[in-house]
Design brief:
By secondary structure, this protein is an all-alpha fold. The chain has a domain of 161 residues: Leucine-rich Repeat Variant (Alpha Horseshoe), CATH 1.25.10. Helix content is 66%, strand content 0%. It is built from 21 helices and no strands. Helix 13 packs parallel to helix 15. The chain is elongated and about 110 Å long. Keywords: Cytoplasm. The B regulatory subunit might modulate substrate selectivity and catalytic activity, and also might direct the localization of the catalytic enzyme to a particular subcellular compartment.
């Protein structure tokens, strides 16, 4: 009876051979029995390797590697047969998923050299056109790029208050760039591959993947941002389904920069990408694109660090006006809205951009904004900062702007003539004085009667201002005299009162 009961109990499983276990573990690292069993985010591998945690937004199922023959990743492509090369390609990609701590390169020097050589082999193989980007290969290369590239930048790398390199600040370079550069080149070759199946690749180069690429534009390393710029531009051109998502994501980055932090390292590179994107917009422009101009590009003039990306910003704005000249008045209104009050360097940039915009402005659009515009230009003509005043005077040397002024001189000259008169009387800089005299001569040749009328109006205004100033001076003198009389009377009353108080006390 007892034996019958024991026979029904489950039998104990035999212990596995430790050597089998060790072979299985090592197979995940070196043998690559399963092509996609590379290091995942947050996982640990051999204690001999120092691996940095990276963030990957892309999920690559391990089942994708089923049926792929394992090939030693250290084998050279030259030594592999034609049937082995594709599997070797995938094995090498999985081998390069490991990420090492590059802050101490001597610590893992042999492993780092081996990985770098493997990356170079992969790049040569793809560049030669021998690679076939099947679904397992696409999954493997995207996984490798995600493992190496996607990471969170430590806060200690935030240096300047503007969140970007300034003219006087040395850029910071990533110690892992020797590997990252090859990974970026490999990703670019993959995207540019002629026979790449875009519909298949879109399953892996998806929106989360693109979003993490955009996050990398905040890198402190200008070399990485430059590589990202090229990669994202190619993705935008090849994966048409991602275009609205990319535009929206870039808009959100810039909203966050302008209205919240004013800290981002990659605004110039993102604008450089969008300069070519805007030039490719179809006509008529969509409402989405007009909103991008008004809500993103125009507010980008506000931050103090605008000088870092102003050249790219101006190009984007000019491209919009080239596409639709009716946007010129909208752009000038935006410039006037964000015109700097106390920052002379920004004012110089605004004047340069204003000249480029005015060169593309039609008469109809110019007349919409000429009054507020030349009030601002008049203030710049009269600026005590000689560079601002000089730059504002040089606007009049532009033939197109001068032609616009000639045709609207009845409205414009009265707005700026007083600034020219006061410059001639009071400005401290000789170069500005010479430019002022040249403009006054030019205006006299344009319309002498109008100039005389403006001169007469300025003299009358000055006389009224002098009379008002004299009246204020006399009024203040009377108030001061009255106050002095009240004070003397009060002192005469207080002295006898104090004497009477003293006598009573005695």
């Amino acid at each position: 009876m007892f034996k019958q009961i024991l026979s029904k109990l489950p039998k104990k499983m035999p212990k596995s051979d430790p050597s089998d276990s060790s072979r299985s573990d090592s197979g995940n690292i070196t043998s690559f029995g399963n092509v996609f069993q590379c290091t995942n985010v947050g996982s640990t591998i051999s204690s001999k390797l120092s691996v940095v945690k990276r963030v990957s937004s892309v999920v690559f199922p391990a089942s994708m590697g089923a049926g792929v023959e394992a090939v030693d990743p250290h084998l050279s492509f030259k030594d592999a047969s034609n049937t082995q090369k594709q599997n070797l390609f995938i094995s090498k990609l999985n081998f390069c998923c490991r990420v090492y701590d590059m802050s101490d390169p001597d610590r893992n020097c042999p492993e780092l050299d081996l990985k770098r050589q493997t990356l170079l082999d992969l790049l040569d193989f793809v560049s030669s056109g021998s690679a076939k980007f099947t679904e397992p290969a696409i999954a493997a290369i995207c996984k490798m790029c995600a493992s190496n590239l996607f990471r969170v930048f430590p806060p200690k790398f935030r240096t300047s208050s503007t969140g970007s390199e300034t003219v006087d600040e040395e850029p910071m370079f990533d110690p892992a760039w020797s590997h990252l550069q090859i990974v970026y080149d490999l990703l670019l070759q993959f995207i540019n591959y002629n026979s790449l199946d875009v519909k298949l690749a879109k399953m892996y180069v998806d929106q989360p993947f693109v979003s993490r690429l955009l996050d990398l534009f905040d890198s402190e390393d200008p070399r990485e941002r430059d590589s990202l710029k090229t990669v994202l531009h190619r993705i935008y051109g090849k994966f048409m389904a991602h275009r609205p998502f990319i535009r929206k994501s870039v808009s959100n980055i810039m909203y966050h920069f302008v209205f919240e932090t004013e800290r981002h390292n990659g605004i110039a590179e993102l604008l450089e990408i969008f300069g070519s994107v805007i030039s490719g917009f179809a006509l008529p422009l969509k409402e989405e694109h007009r909103i991008f101009l008004w809500r993103v590009l125009i507010p980008l003039h506000k931050p103090k660090s605008v000088g870092i990306y102003h050249q790219q910003l101006t190009y984007c704005v000019v491209q919009f006006i080239y596409k639709d000249p009716k946007l010129a008045s909208t752009v000038i209104k935006g410039l006037l809205k964000y015109w700097p009050v106390t920052n002379s360097q920004k004012e110089l940039m605004f004047l340069s951009e204003l000249e480029e915009v005015l060169e593309m402005t039609s008469m109809v659009e110019f007349q919409k904004i000429m009054v507020p515009l030349f009030r601002r230009i008049g203030g710049c003509l009269n600026s005590s900062h000689y560079q601002v005043a000089e730059r504002a005077h040089l606007l009049w040397n532009n033939e197109h702007i001068l032609d616009l002024v000639k045709q609207n001189r009845q409205m414009i000259l009265p707005l700026v003539f007083s600034a020219l008169v006061h410059n001639a009387q009071n400005h401290w800089n000789q170069a500005v004085l010479n430019l002022t005299q040249n403009i006054r001569k030019m205006l006299s040749q344009m319309d002498e009667d109008l100039v005389l009328a403006c001169q007469h109006s300025v003299e009358e205004e000055d006389s009224r201002s002098s009379a008002a100033a004299e009246k204020r001076r006399i009024t203040w003198e009377r108030l001061e005299a009255a106050a002095a009389n009240v004070q003397s009377v009060a002192s005469d009353i207080l002295v006898p009162a104090k004497s009477a108080t003293c006598s009573v006390a005695c």
